[in-house]
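ok so i was messing around last nite and threw this chain in just to see what happens. nothing serious, just curious
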Amino acid sequence: MDFVTRSLSPQESRVVLSLTEQGRRELDRAEVIAILGVTAKAADHIIHSLRHKGWLERASWGKYLLIPPEQGPEAIGDSNLLALASRITDPYYIGFSSAASHYGLTTQHRNVIWLVTPHRLRDRRIGDTDVRIVNSAPRKFFGFAPVDVLGYKLMMSDREKTAIDCIDRPDLCGGEGEAAYILATACRRMDWDKAVAYLEQIGSKSLLQRFGWLVDHAGAQIPPPERERLLRVVKHARRSIFGSTTSVNNPVGYDDTWRIRVNIPRDDLHASAGLARRRNIKGGA
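result:
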C-alpha cells in the first residue's frame, strides 16, 4: 500500500475517532453507514479514502481493520498482515513458518502466511502475500492461544506446538533442515512437559521419533523424566524414516536410540547440529 497522507476529512475523523474511543480495531461497512448516517455509496467512498490514506485495511469482504494513529505507516507489515489473515475464518491459528518467524525461531522470511483451520477454504491473497490454508486433523488442532500483535489479538500456535508442527510438516516451514533449526532454537525456552504431552496427544510415533532424534541432534538437555516418557513409546515403535524415501547424498543414517533412519544430507542439518548446546553455553557465560 502506498501512503499518500494520514490526514483526515471531518467524516473520516469521525470514523477513526469512534473506533479509537471505543478501543476497537475493526468495523464493517454497515457501521460506517451508522456512524455517519450516510448512504451505502457514500460509506464506500469514505472507506476507499481511508484505505488509500493508510487508516484501514480490508480483512475480508465488507470488514476492515483500523491502523491505529500511533502506529502510522509502519503498522503495515508482516504483523498487520497476520491480523488481516486472522479474520478469514474461525476457529483458526497462525502456524508453521509464520509462527516460527513471530517467535524468532527462524531467520527466513517468506511471503506466505499459514492459516490452520478445520474448515475447508480456498487459499487467499492479502496484498502481495499469499495466505495458505492448512486443514488440520482434529487431534492436531490444539496448542494455540491469543497473542498480541501490534494491538490486535490473534490466535497463534505456542512455541512448543510451532516446533512440533514444523517437524511434522517440514514442507510448510522450508524443509527438513529449517524444521531442525526451528526446533533447536525453540529448545532454549522449551516447556518440556508441555511438548511431550503434545506429542502424546497427537499420538504419532514417527513424529515422536523425529522429535527425540532432533532434540539429541541439537544437543538440548531434555529432563530425564520427559526423555523416559518418549523412549517408552519408541521402545514399541516400528522403525521410521525422516527425510526422503529415495537415496540422497551423504545421509545421516540410522539411529538405534530413536529407531529412525534420517535420510537427509548432513549438510542440510549442519546449522542445527549442537545449536541448543551452544546457545546454552553462551547464555550461561
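not much to say yet. The longest strand covers residues 129-135.
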